[in-house]
Design brief:
Layout: H1 3-35, E1 44-50, E2 53-57, E3 68-72, E4 75-85, E5 89-94, E6 107-111, E7 125-132, E8 135-142, E9 149-154, H2 168-172, E10 178-181, H3 203-216, E11 221-227, H4 229-240, E12 247-253, H5 259-269, H6 275-284, E13 315-320, H7 329-337, E14 342-347, H8 355-358, H9 360-374
Parallel strand pairs: 9-10, 9-11, 11-12, 12-13, 13-14
Antiparallel strand pairs: 1-2, 1-6, 2-5, 3-4, 3-6, 4-5, 7-8, 8-10
Helix pairs in contact: 1-6, 3-4
Length: 383
């Protein structure tokens, strides 16, 4: 081989090695990001606040119809309909009480938490402690506890038990109280030694302990409602719970039915090689998962589509086609695999876990209709 040829071969080998190193590094980063509770960052420019409302830089979030909220520092500001708009800005109604003070801030974080505290719901509520295998985890019980049908509300990744509050009044209108729970590593429930998510594989145990509390309070039938990653937690729970004979129905809002499509979606969004997903999942399924900061996972067990035949109770599944965090592919595949038990409602323009925010009335009609058709509306212990 000539000297130029040897140089070319050496350069090619070095390039391949560097590329492999980059892909491996990206895979470790993806794996670590997936199982690590995220830090939230501001994503909205606040231009002005006044009696007329709050003017924001136009984004795909701020231009959405409906009711939402903004985190300005550690303060939540509820916002309503768009009052005025142009090509670059939107003016939204401020629906909360009190004066909004920016405190020198010019950015905020967009949120679906239009209902944020139990007292916002005009329902009876109390705080309880769930005795999980890791220690005490806080929860709220909201609504008429005399009902024998209860709903256990399970929030998603990177948020807490405030997320499901939006659905609580709708269930209460059909006589169903809700229990909004916390689970390991969500910032409220006990932390594991590594502080990482198990993506549903272990979190269901904490929710199962919450069902103990509901049953002790008189619940005879249990509905499970999961939001985003909470959907995967609920699917695990429905298969594994010691209370599974009591589980009478499942509601899923923008759920992670399977992790594979979600990971592929995000790698394509970031324009990185698909190989990154395969290496990241292989890493997380091996003893080398410690490189990402957690214990080994089993993505086969986290594939709800593969286990679709395991579910025998009615399932209400809602997902938006433009969900920018959890694509609806697995939800649709799950519904197609089990049309006998899954009632699927496709949304447009609701993004991720903001279906209620976009159109509360449609959300109410879908949930009420499903409860009525399945006979799952609440019943009092005295009736």
């Amino acid at each position: 081989m000539s000297r130029p040829a040897r140089r070319a071969a050496a350069l090619a080998a070095a390039t391949l090695a560097a590329s492999a190193g980059i892909v491996t590094g990206l895979s470790v980063l993806l794996a670590r990001t997936l199982i690590t509770p995220p830090r939230h960052r501001d994503d909205v420019d606040v231009l002005s606040v006044g009696p007329e409302g709050i003017r924001l830089r136009r984004t795909s979030d701020t231009e959405l119809p409906g009711r939402y909220a903004l985190w300005i520092g550690d303060r939540l500001v509820r916002i309503g309909p768009i009052l005025d708009e142009d090509e670059t800005t939107v003016l939204r109604e401020i629906t909360g009480k009190g004066r909004v003070r920016l405190g020198g801030r010019s950015t905020a974080r967009f949120s679906g938490y239009h209902l944020y505290r139990p007292r916002d719901l005009d329902l009876p509520f109390r705080s309880v402690i769930v005795d999980t295998e890791l220690g005490p985890a806080p929860a709220w019980i909201l609504g008429d506890e005399s009902s024998t049908t209860w709903c256990i509300q399970v929030h998603g990744r990177g948020v807490n038990r405030r997320e499901p509050l939006r659905a609580v009044p709708i269930l209460a209108e059909r006589g169903i109280p809700s229990m909004c729970v916390s689970y390991r590593n969500d910032g409220e429930a006990p932390r594991t030694s590594d502080g990482t998510y198990r993506l549903g594989l272990d979190e269901w145990r904490d929710v199962d302990a919450a069902i103990d509390v509901a049953v002790a309070a008189g619940a005879q039938r249990i509905l499970l409602m999961g939001w985003s990653m909470g959907g995967q937690v609920v699917l695990q729970l429905a298969r594994r719970s010691r209370h599974r004979r009591r589980i009478a129905g499942i509601l899923l809002d923008s759920p992670v039915v399977a992790w594979g499509p979600t990971l592929l979606f995000h790698t394509r969004l970031a324009r990185v090689p698909v190989a990154v997903v395969h290496i990241a999942t292989a890493l997380l399924e091996s003893p080398a998962a410690r490189l990402a900061g957690g214990d080994a996972l089993d993505f086969g067990e986290l594939d709800g589509v593969a286990y679709a035949d395991s579910y025998a109770v009615p399932i209400l599944l809602q997902h938006s086609v433009d969900d920018g965090y959890v694509p609806p592919d697995a939800s649709l595949a799950f519904a197609q695999a089990r049309p006998d038990v899954v009632e699927y409602h496709e949304w447009q323009g609701a993004k991720h876990c903001k279906l209620w925010n976009l159109d509360e009335q449609r959300y109410r009609e879908i949930v009420h209709g499903w409860l009525d058709r399945t006979g799952l509306a609440g019943a009092s212990a005295t009736t």
